[in-house]
Backbone:
């Protein structure tokens, strides 16, 4: 009898079991890393909105703060106007970026002296677990619950 070369079925099953165990350990860590990356992007986006609002307020003092994300953005930037200031990118001005939904609210007064910028995860526990917001003081705050408004009572981000 000649000895056949190759792997037995038991050996192949053991290798597959080891690969499945490694995958079971790695996949939750990958998902947590993705959530952390989305949250970091959301914080950076809220900070970008704050910076854009301060620049907008300085450039257009008779208008005050911008009333929408679209006013902070723009497609024709020669020259920028109060309806299209070209201070943020078009993806952020669309309201959705990196698994988060962004909104501008609470703009009031003439000139507008206040605003609320917020970012909420599109899918809780999948794209993010915290919501972020900021008011005219430019301090980024967060909450584990979904935010309908930024009252300034949320926990400041360290």
Residues:
């Amino acid at each position: 009898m000649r000895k056949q070369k190759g792997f037995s079925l038991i050996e192949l099953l053991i290798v597959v079991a080891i690969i499945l165990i490694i995958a079971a350990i790695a996949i939750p860590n990958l998902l947590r890393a993705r959530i952390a990356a989305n949250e970091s992007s959301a914080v950076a986006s809220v900070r970008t909105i704050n910076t854009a609002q301060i620049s907008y307020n300085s450039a257009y003092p008779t208008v005050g703060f911008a009333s929408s994300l679209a006013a902070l953005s723009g497609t024709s930037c020669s020259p920028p106007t109060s309806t299209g200031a070209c201070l943020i990118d078009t993806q952020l001005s669309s309201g959705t970026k990196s698994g988060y939904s962004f909104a501008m609210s609470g703009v009031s007064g003439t000139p507008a002296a206040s605003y609320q910028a917020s970012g909420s995860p599109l899918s809780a526990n999948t794209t993010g677990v915290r919501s972020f917001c900021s008011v005219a003081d430019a301090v980024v705050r967060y909450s584990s619950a979904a935010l309908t408004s930024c009252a300034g009572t949320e926990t400041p981000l360290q």
Remarks:
- The chain has one domain: 9-156.
- The first helix runs from residue 9 to 59.
- Residues 9-156 form one domain.
